[in-house]
Amino acid sequence: MKPSARVQSAIDLLDEIIVAARDGGASADAIAKKYFKARRYAGSKDRRAIREHVYAAIRRWGDRPESGRQAMLGLAAEQPDLRALFDGSDYGPAAIKEGEPVARGAQVPGWLADKFAGPIDEQEQKALFDRAPLHIRANARLVADSIVEATWSEAVPLALPHSYALPAGTQVENSAPYRDGAIEIQDLGSQAIALAAVASKPGLVLDLCAGAGGKTLALAAMLPADSKIIAADTDRGRLSRIEPRIGRSGADNIETILLSPGKEMDSLEHLKGKCDLVLIDAPCSGTGTWRRNPELRWRMTPKRLAQTTELQHRLINLGSELVKPGGRLVYAVCSLLDAEGGDQAEAFLADHRQWQEIAIDLPLGRPYRGGTLLSPYHDGTDGFYFSCLEKL
Questions:
Q1: What does DSSP assign to residue 64?
Q2: Cα gap 36→114, rounded to integer Å
Q3: How many independent structural domains does the chain possess?
Q4: CB-based burial label for 23 (10 Å; 0-12, 13-18, 19+)
Q5: What strand order describes the sheet that includes 134-138?
Q6: Cβ atoms within 10 A of the Cβ of 365, count?
Q7: Three-state DSSP class for 135?
Q8: 323-336 per-position pLDDT tens digit
Q9: Contacts (Cβ under 8 Å, ≥6 apart) of 382
Q10: Where are the alpha helices (DSSP H) in the chain?
Q11: What is the average pLDDT value for the chain, to the nearest integer?
Q12: Which H helix or E strand runs over 136?
C-alpha cells in the first residue's frame, strides 16, 4: 500500500471506532482486528503503519472527533509530512479544502480537565499517555519467583512481593511460566490493592466485581488454602474467563457466582453480615488506564459518568451489608476522578458512622481523601484510588 492509502485506511478505521465509542460498541482493538481480517491484502508493514496512525489520533485528541478525517486532519496540521499525503491520489485521502473541519484541543477532554483528584496536576495528566509498562505477578503458592528469574534474566523486581517488570513486548502469554500458572500479567497498582485487601487475613472473601478474576487470583495466592474466595460479577463473558485461570493457578478455594444486574442481593443474601472482606473493584471511567486504553476518553460523557457514579454508590452500599462486624470493605476504582474516588469514600463514611477508614502501610501510593491514590507519574502504576474501610 502507498503511504497515502494507509492514511485513508486509518481514516476509515477511525470512523468505525468513533461510532463505536459514541454508541457503546466494540473496542478499538476488536474493530481493528476485524478490519484487518477482512483486508488480507494489507501486509504486516501496512497494518503496523495504519495502527500507528489510528492510535496516534486516539491518543492526541481528548474530545471525540466527529469523523476519522477530522482526527487525521488534526494530526496533519501538526505534521507537514502527513499533510502532504492528503493529495487526492488513488486510494488516498481527498485533498484538503480550505476551512474544512479539523480536530483540535488537548489530550484530556475539556469537560474532565477540572475533575481530577487534587494531586493529579498537568504533569501527572501528561503521564497518563506514556507507554504502559509490563508488570507480572509471580504465583506465591507455586514459589514462582525463582521461575521468573530463571526464565527472564531481564526481569526487574518491583516494590511489592512477587512483582516484576518485563521489557515491553515480552511474549508472556506464550511462555511456559504463564501456561503453568506460575505468573499472571497484572499491573503493580492492581497488585497493591490485593495486598492491602488481605492485610486483615480474611477467611471468607467476596470479590464483588471480579471481572476476569485478576484480583481474585492475587487474593488466592496471598491467603491460606483454607480461606474461601467468592468471585462474583454480572458479566457472564468476563466471569467465564476466570475458570481457565483458576485451573492454571492451582487455587482450589475459589467459587464463582453470576449475578443479575440490579438484583445482585438475590444471589448474595446468604452472605449478609458474614464476610471478613468484600472487595469492590467498581466499574468506572477508566481514567487511570488511559495509557492502555486511550479510546476510553471518547466513550465517557457527563451523562455516562453520572450513571457510573450512581452505580458505584449502590455497589459500595450493597457490599457493606455483606461485611460482618470487624470485617473490612475495600473500595477501588481505576480512576483518578474525585467523583469516583474520594467523593464516594467520604460520602459513605459520612452516612455510615459504624464504619472507619483503616490506613494500610504500602511502599507506594499517597494518602488521599479517606484512601490511597496511585498514579503513573508518582508510582509507575496505572491510576487507582482505593479505600480500606472497617465495620465497627
A1: P
A2: 38
A3: 3
A4: exposed
A5: 156-157, 163-166, 134-138, 183-185
A6: 23
A7: strand
A8: 999 999 999 999 99
A9: 132, 187, 189, 190, 288, 289, 291, 292, 334, 374, 376
A10: 3-23, 28-37, 44-60, 68-78, 80-83, 122-126, 145-151, 176-179, 188-197, 214-222, 236-240, 242-249, 264-268, 296-299, 302-321, 342-351, 376-379
A11: 96
A12: strand 134-138
Backbone angles phi, psi at 228, to 5 degrees: -125, 130
pLDDT the model gives residue 135: 98
* Residue 124 belongs to a domain: no
Residues 270 and 347 in one domain: yes
231 with 373, same domain: the answer is yes
Mean pLDDT of 333-349: 98
Does residue 297 form part of some domain? Answer: yes
- The pTM score is 0.95
Half-sphere exposure of 160 (CA within 13 A, CB side): 29
Residue 319 lies in a domain: yes
Which of 273, 282, 279 has its CA nearest to residue 322? 273
Query: 64 lies in a domain?
Result: yes
Parent domain of 371: 194-391
248 and 342 within one domain: yes
Residue pLDDT, tens place only, 173-230: 999 999 999 999 999 999 999 999 999 999 999 999 999 999 999 999 999 999 999 9
Nearest-CA neighbor of 302 among 112, 151, 100? 112
Give the cell for residue 51.
495502527
Question: Are residues 224 and 153 part of one domain?
Answer: no
CB atoms within 10 A of CB 15: 17
**Residue type at position 275:** C
Reported as a pLDDT band with limits 50, 70 and 90, residue 144 is confident
